[in-house]
Amino acid sequence: MRLPRVLRTTPFRLTLLFLALFAAAACAFLAYIYLATAGEVTRRADSQVKAEMRSLEAVYARGGFAALNQAVIERSSSDHVLVYLLMDPAGHPVSGSIGVSPVKHRDRDEVWASFTLTETNPDGAVVRLPARGLQEKMPGGEFMFVGADVGEAEGFVVRILRAIWGAGALIIVLGLAGGIVVSRDVNRSMASLIDVIDAARGGDLGARAKVRGAGDEYDELASGLNDMLERLERSIGGLRHAGDAIAHDLRSPLTRLRARLEAAMIEADAGRADPKAALHQALEDADGVLRTFSAVLAIARLEAAGVAPGQALFDPGLLAADIIELYEPLAEEKGLDFRAELTPSLSMKGNREFLAQALSNILDNAIKYTPTGGAVMLRVRRRSSGDIEMSVTDTGPGIDAADRERVIERFVRLEHSRSLPGVGLGLSLVAAVARSHHGHLELDEGPGGAGGPGLRVALVLPKVG
Amino acid sequence: MRVLIVEDDLEAAAAMTRGLAEAGHDCRTAADGELGLAATASEPFDVLVVDRMMPRLDGVSMVERLRASGDQTPVLFLSALGEINDRVSGLKAGGDDYLVKPYAFAELIARIEALARRRETGSVQTVLKVGDLEMDLLGREVRRAGQEIDLQPREFQLLEFLMRNAGQSVTRTMLLEKVWEYHFDPQTNVIDVHISRLRAKIDKGFDRAMLQTVRGAGYRLEA
Predict the structure, then answer these.
(1) What is the pLDDT of residues A55-100, one digit of tens each?
(2) Shared-domain flag, residues B75 and B140
(3) Is the peptide bond before B44 cis (omega within 30 degrees of 0)?
(4) Mutate to test the interface with B, among A330, A351, A364, A369 (most CBs of B within 10 A)
(5) Do A294 and B188 touch (CB under 8 A)?
(6) CATH classification of the domain holding B33
(7) How far is B194 from chain A (nearest CA, A)?
(8) Contact B180 A322 (CB under 8 A)
(9) Of B97, B120, B143, which marks where a domain is finished?
(10) What number is the ipTM of this complex?
(11) What is this structure's pTM?
């Protein structure tokens, strides 16, 4: 049989554990009280008996046996709480309130004993009371016994014991009730989280846990869960978006490829054209499709990863110098005025390969779209904010202000960007690389020139630390 | 040259075998890592072409075991995974080169031949000689027919790679990877401009052009 849910929760189990610990502590405490109290009762009886014995000894010292006998008779008959017995040296009772000494020994001077007093109440009932007494040998050889009834004190101890049992039961009942209440409360808090997890497991990533605003650990858990779901939803949304974009961007070139092959087949059948040329063209088309595919995939992977992997510290100026070295002959061949301004000894953190590709794409576009006689300038510097800026400015046709925003969108529809002058598929990848480094891409108008308003593309990456 | 193709896609393996046979190479195929190891144990090969993702024993594990057994046959990994980390893990396992699918045939053949050749010229050379072209690796000097040629550092590296692979096609991607160490595909063929600059320096004034363009493949330095 399974326990009810409330009794299976962690808080309830914790309650049981603490209850057991607390009960053990309480037992130890009460046991100490019991021992201390019981001991105290005995001690008090003993000291009372001892004091009485001293006073009787004093009487004996002053008046001898006769005076002691007189005192014992007096004290026994009065309504005294103590009991007395005076015996001659042979141990025969002489006077006192009890008939026989509870102490059988006659060999020692001082003997303590616990015994039971039997009393008859006025109603005739016989009561047996616990008692303690001291027997002493007087200088004359007589024995004097004084005892005290400790029954009343014992009753006190019994009451304490009863209280201990009662308190124990109360602790257990209250503890269990408290445990159930606490675990019910925890259960209620957890239930909303569990509902959200169940919903997410069922495919509903839009479900969110309620944050009560108490700022406790449940709120922390709930907001953590919500945050996780948020990211998951965004990343899955990004992948879906990327899937749509891939389908969209590959469909048209594939359609073109297919049409070209079909036309070539018809022409080859009719013996009108050489299929070799068509095959060659088809191969080039296929390569184009693959390039698009790789670029879209690279963007999608960066978007899905969120943060570029394999980041390391490096000097962006050196990275730019390498890219310049790669592109400088191309710019020269095209008759462009290609310059660079690199701030030395900067440091930044990033994925070198991705950033090299990003800068290469920007530079490639600038060289491609700037007409002969124009100028291209690559600049690497540190902004006053500490951010690292790698920018390429050209005197080409530029991009309309209205279209600039679109290029920096989260996932650019490649068909749009391809239709923009001066922007290839590359800029979408550059934007994705920037985002994966917590940076961004800025597009501005260039300095202007014969070729158009020009374009300034800046890759802005956050400073280290 | 004897090439072992370890690839679970039998159609792709058959196409590769045809293409390599066309280029004059002798191919065997194995459908997974286990069979690949068995094949390398039974006969020697000049180059192994290993697909990364295969049933039973994957390519990386296969090459790790191969290297552990002391076999140093050059390995070219083929993979649909093109991320930097995938490439690094492939090379770490003992691969010598890495080609991402899909690839052009010319690229595959050029890389296989470069791997086989690297094995032949394993000894450390200080002077490279191709025809009347001479490169002194220590003195950083290049001469053609005794006439000194002044090269930029990168042009020197480019020519060194071409000379080490003389007589064989090298692709633009190979040059970008081995000389510039970039693993991405620039939108424009920047390499062509570098080659034409180099060509102007080593071939200008000579009757015979050594640095040739191979249509559909890349470049080749001929003696």
Answers:
(1) 888 888 888 888 888 888 888 877 667 888 888 888 888 888 887 8
(2) no
(3) no
(4) A330
(5) no
(6) 3.40.50.2300
(7) 7
(8) yes
(9) B120
(10) 0.83
(11) 0.63
